[in-house]
Amino acid sequence: MRVVMFGYQTWGHRTLGALLDSRHEVVLVVTHPKSDHAYERIWSDSVADLAEQHDVPVLLRNRPGDDELLRALKEAEPDIIVANNWRTWLPPEIFDLPPHGTLNIHDSLLPAYAGFSPLIWALINGEKQVGVTAHRMDAELDMGDILLQRAVPVGPTDTATDLFHRTVDLIGPIVTDALDLIASGKAVWTPQDRSRSSFFHKRSPQDSRIDWTWPAEDLERFVRAQSDPYPNAFTHHRGERIRILSAAVSEGRYGGTPGRIFIREGDGVVVVAGADARTGRLPGLVVRRVRTEDGTEYAATDYFRTMGGYLTDRP
User: Fold this and answer.
1) Res. 39 pLDDT band, cuts 50 70 90
2) Distances in Å between the alpha carbon of 9 and those of 85, 188, 205?
3) For the chain, which has fewer Cβ within 10 Å, the N-terminal or C-terminal residue?
4) Which InterPro entries match (predicted)?
5) CATH topology of domain 205-312
6) pLDDT score of 47 more than 90
């Protein structure tokens, strides 16, 4: 089949690589210009560079729909469009243009976690598995009929970085298998169960701010969900922002006010956590490693030289 690819960052790069290695012909690539957004500077393998290395025509767009792009798409005469990590809505005059429509590759197990940063949100929420979905694009973002899904388990110490590497490796096989099913006429499309759908917004710095009224178990996942190279979970100590790099749920139960720097436990320092921490029946969060705004990392036991005081959500 003749394929046009819309995609960006490493997700799009993996998709284009799979297409170039397949028996299908890539006739045009559309990708975004480079961005300074924090979440777009990481996993930033260039789709444009890969296309140019294989002499595939490339168009750069922040948003689609202009006459030049539509003309180029029609002249390319694709049998199908394949999209992965295209950051803006595609109009029907694009996604319905080819005979086989548009196949979108999304890094969640739809219908859950449609939208943005699904791995981070899924880890924060304690999901037991994550994965990749190949589905037909329609007018509602990430809501089209599903063709294929592949899942991987989430382990008790996995970070978002671990899950990224595990799921990005699923992209090539799912792209190839999906296109082969479509080309052979054997594709079976399953409508999504809208009662199970959830949609998540783009992340911003505000979303990494620690709320010490959350239970320690939730905060421990919150830290793992924002592992390097993602923007880390942060809090404030004596007016200065610090990033929490490593943490654990305490063995002991500690009572008091959420955010209180309380006591050493093991290789870290316990911070009181949970809206009901006053009862003394909840574990705290053992902070193990922190990073200051100048980029210096410390063991928490070195950074917090004395106990007492509070970690706060604002300076």
Assistant:
1) confident
2) 7, 29, 20
3) C
4) Formyl_trans_C, Formyl_transf_N, Formyl_transf_N_sf, Formyl_transferase-like_C_sf
5) Methionyl-tRNA Fmet Formyltransferase; Chain A, domain 2 (3.10.25)
6) yes
